[in-house]
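As the next step, I needed to go through one protein, both as residues and as discrete backbone shape codes, included below for the reader:
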Amino acid sequence: MKSQILATGLLAAGVSAAATEKRACSATAEWPGFAGIKHAFVFGDSYSQTGFNTSLAAPSAANPLGNPSYPGWTSCNGPNWVDYLTVKHNASLLYTYNLAYGGATVDAALVKPYADTVLTLKDQVSGLFNASYAPRTAPAWTGADTIFAFWIGVNDVGNSYWNGADSTGPLNDKIVGVYEGLAKEIWAAGGRNFVWLSVPPVDRTPMLTAESADAQKLCKEDVADFNGKIAAMAKNATAWEGVNAWVVDANGVFTGAIEEPGKYASTAGLKNTTAYCEAYENGTDAQDTLIESCGVPANEYFWLNTLHPTYPIHDAVAETVADALVAGPNLGRKRSHVDWDSAREVNMQPAIVAPDITLYQKEFENGRTAGMRGLILRPTMPNMADIRWTTLQE
């Protein structure tokens, strides 16, 4: 059993520490809250790409995504989650540098993309980011005003799942090992706030539902394994100095909307969540284009083509990411709800530890904090705040 001491800070007498416990996990000093974030760097594949070119216009107040013009070149027949996070679900003016590239895998040496010209995650971080943005000059980002978001794995899974768990398990270990190493490169450059999105349910794409039940099962198992390793990687990152980490369950958002479109306001209008219409698969001039042979407009299909969804689910993903950022880090040391005022006094003789300061002990009996003990250094001088610690037993 391991004991940890969490300083709850200098609290005014009579104020409950519970009022300060808002996040599921502790944040480091590098997290200013979502409203304090000024820059976002995004890495990934076609689910995230907007066609940003590091050599062209940088993000600005007029176009927070820089180039091309909004919403960019996306795979969803409209704005994608990066667009929505930047201009709809943002909490501040957010300058977004989107280095994602369609078709990307994590490392071409492990899983080859569809073409040699595709910029893998390794290329995006070790190449584009390190060359253009690691120096922190343009923009002059800091660890405390920047988030780094990753959504990748669709192509790693899609290009390897059929080999079965005996092969994909060890392969995923290698892939996520590279993934973690790339995140650590960003940390070494000063990055401190990391957001990882889980791989969506590739097994439910039209590409896979056209295959056998066995193929769908293999794919589903591969996605689950990959996502488990993303979660473990993100947990590892919380040990790096100053890091705040989030894993956002994009897989769950997709699954929820496929099974119940009304779960999210942005997906409530979807009428077909299983198939796609070939007449729409390369995009349409208008988001609500209706071709009679398709039955319903393009934006009432969940899937645009065999692998990519339409824009409504991207809105839901962006909203979920924003909600997670507002709530604070969801990985790391757990914060417990500590209700000092309802705790009972433990049989302990008050001890004078310094002139005019007395040590008291309280034991908590409520909820998850039952059995925890708190120490209070209580100044006897007027207008002085208590200093309180909570001892957590794990």
User: Anything to note?
Assistant: The chain has a mean pLDDT of 86. The longest strand covers residues 3-11. The radius of gyration is 24 Å. DSSP finds eight helices and eleven strands in the chain.
